[in-house]
Amino acid sequence: MKTAEISKPAKIAAWIISGLLTALYIYSASGKLFLHPEQMAQMHLGDWRIIIALGELASAFLFLFPKTNKIGTLLLSSYMGGAIIIHMTAGMSIMMPAVVLILVWTVGIIRNPDLIK
Question: Is the pTM of this model over 0.90?
Fold first, then answer.
């Protein structure tokens, strides 16, 4: 089966968005670990914050690199699905995690068109 060729501008855009998303996940994980651990406690996830942050970091780095981008896309999708559920149960807006999830899938599909086949 022949895979679709990705244009150079699309590749560049996917790399830029991947880098920005990875930076966002690094910032988010560092917040869970060092900056604002009390936010996790407010959501009754204080005991899980280290595991959640490490999973977030691992998934983000798997997403960044081409050889592991598919598994990273799936892991970040699961992570963002959980974030959406937590936001819903806490009465918070789901806009941010939903937009990030859409960006994750957009990049995943640009970099791996066979994800939707």
Answer: no
